């Protein structure tokens, strides 16, 4: 019996196309609506924000979309990423389950985010764009777009959520090293930022607020386009290289996962791993349990409402039907900044509504406990976001132990925690506490959902 740990594909096995789950959904994803007319948006509505090639990907229903050769050439810097058998963790847990993780922390920016940052930057460069604006929470997306911008000669402006801007100075330094300008959000540089600060001078910020600022900058400047690191269909599409590689690597290992797990904030790393496997299932393959794991302090899938909502706080974006906590909802300042978003990807939300995936919510202390256990067995310190997936994988392995089942568990380790060590310091000092959202604030936010005819 093989005791192999790593399963590594050569560069020829970098996927040549992205997989589009929209081709295989049993029911189509609801249309994205214009915020004024409530009619389906057309390309002209999105053109102020995105280059046309990304708009076409946003509405595409083709099963496969070719990855441009220059993009695949950049991917060679870190892809294919390894699939790793967590044998030491299995032994520590005493579980009959087999645990695998797909490790996306090997990218230059340290997470899965360059998988979409690179193509987004390339398509903008091809369209003659010189500058991009964006938002970031923990900083994984901001640093990834900054990295991609440096490769293609684009200036990048990043609005970073204030609480993360303060908590994670090294992410900010990484963005600046790649040449980006990073601003704490809400800021005084936009109308939407100034409006928030007028009401809440000490606002911790949110991804919804930061999106408003970045969208406003792009909408008011014809020479600037906007880039988003999660939620949108084309972002889910770009991330599917993760799952496509994992399918081949599981075949190399002679295994086939029974349980697939990813943390979920906007949905990109979860979708990247899960959607190719879900596509196999929808085309007649075996069924699996697919679990999206979110923070209990921002429980979009497990507590949110499935409704049309804005993607940002200032209501500058189109309306997407998604699981949402309300666009004005501001989550408490827990450490998994990349999961502090009020809404979930329309595609992930649709899969959840169809009963194709499960959702689970954890408080942060249990997640950090799992992250420390994983680090002490497997050697990798996970990002706070990824600890949610680790927690769920450990719980599933312990369930297998209790039930005497030798199931195969696969999760996405979407990034490393090297720039998040203050969170671990807080954990060791007992300063990391579980925080809950305010029920009254949630009720107010949900009461403000836009009225859209069914």
TrEMBL record:
SUPFAM superfamilies: Tryptophan synthase beta subunit-like PLP-dependent enzymes
UniProt keyword annotation of Amino-acid biosynthesis present: yes
Domain of life: Bacteria
Annotated GO CC locations: cytoplasm
Cofactor(s) it depends on: pyridoxal 5'-phosphate
Keyword Amino-acid biosynthesis: yes
UniProt cross-references to Pfam families, sorted A to Z: PALP
Molecular function terms from GO: L-serine hydro-lyase (adding indole, L-tryptophan-forming) activity; pyridoxal phosphate binding; tryptophan synthase activity
Keywords: Amino-acid biosynthesis, Aromatic amino acid biosynthesis, Lyase, Pyridoxal phosphate, Tryptophan biosynthesis
Pathway: Amino-acid biosynthesis; L-tryptophan biosynthesis; L-tryptophan from chorismate: step 5/5
Domain Tryptophan synthase beta chain-like PALP: 78-415
Residue numbers of N6-(pyridoxal phosphate)lysine PTMs: 113
InterPro entries documented for this protein: Trp_synth_b-like, Trp_synth_b_CS, Trp_synth_beta/beta-like, TrpB-like_PALP, TrpB-like_PALP_sf
Family classification: Belongs to the TrpB family.
Subunit structure: Tetramer of two alpha and two beta chains.
Name of the protein this chain belongs to: Tryptophan synthase beta chain
Species for this entry: Rhodopseudomonas palustris (strain HaA2)
Upper lineage: Bacteria, Pseudomonadati, Pseudomonadota, Alphaproteobacteria, Hyphomicrobiales
């Amino acid at each position: 019996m093989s005791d192999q740990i790593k399963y590594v594909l050569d560069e020829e096995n970098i996927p040549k196309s992205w997989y589009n789950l929209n081709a295989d959904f049993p029911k189509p994803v609801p249309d994205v609506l214009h915020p004024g007319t409530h009619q389906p948006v057309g390309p002209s509505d999105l053109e102020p924000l995105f280059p046309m090639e990304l708009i076409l990907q946003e509405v595409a229903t083709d099963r496969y979309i070719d990855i441009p050769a220059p993009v695949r050439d950049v991917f060679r810097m870190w892809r294919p990423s390894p699939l790793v058998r967590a044998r030491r963790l299995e032994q520590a847990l005493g579980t009959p389950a087999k645990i695998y993780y797909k490790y996306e922390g090997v990218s230059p920016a340290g997470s899965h985010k360059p998988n979409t940052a690179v193509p987004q930057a390339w398509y903008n460069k091809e369209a003659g764009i010189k500058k991009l604006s964006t938002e970031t929470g923990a900083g994984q997306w901001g640093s990834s777009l900054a990295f991609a911008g440096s490769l293609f000669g684009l200036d990048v402006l990043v609005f970073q959520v204030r609480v993360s801007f303060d908590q994670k100075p090294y992410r900010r330094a990484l963005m600046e090293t790649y040449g980006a300008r990073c601003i704490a959000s809400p800021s005084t540089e936009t109308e939407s930022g100034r409006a928030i600060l007028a009401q809440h001078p000490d606002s911790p910020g949110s991804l919804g607020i930061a999106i408003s600022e970045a969208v406003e900058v792009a909408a008011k400047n014809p020479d600037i386009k906007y880039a988003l690191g999660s939620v949108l269909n084309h972002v889910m599409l770009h991330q599917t290289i993760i799952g496509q590689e994992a399918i081949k690597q599981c075949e190399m290992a002679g295994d086939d996962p029974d349980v697939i797990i990813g943390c979920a904030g906007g949905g990109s790393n979860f979708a990247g791993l899960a959607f190719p496997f879900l596509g196999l299932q929808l085309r007649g393959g075996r069924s699996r349990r697919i679990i999206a794991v979110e923070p209990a302090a921002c429980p979009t899938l497990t507590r949110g409402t499935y409704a049309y909502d804005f993607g940002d706080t200032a209501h500058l974006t189109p309306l997407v039907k998604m699981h949402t906590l309300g666009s004005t909802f501001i989550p408490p300042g827990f450490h998994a900044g990349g999961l502090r978003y009020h809404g979930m990807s329309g595609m992930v939300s649709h899969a959840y509504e169809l009963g194709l995936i499960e959702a689970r919510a954890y408080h942060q202390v249990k997640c950090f406990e799992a992250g420390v256990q994983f680090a002490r067995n497997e050697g990798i310190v996970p990002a706070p976001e990824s600890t949610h997936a680790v927690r769920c994988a450990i719980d599933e392995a312990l369930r297998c132990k209790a039930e005497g089942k030798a199931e195969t568990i696969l999760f996405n380790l979407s990034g490393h925690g090297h720039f998040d060590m203050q969170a671990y310091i807080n954990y060791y000092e007992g300063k990391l506490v579980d925080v809950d959202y305010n029920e009254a604030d949630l009720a107010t936010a949900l009461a403000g959902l836009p009225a859209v005819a069914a």
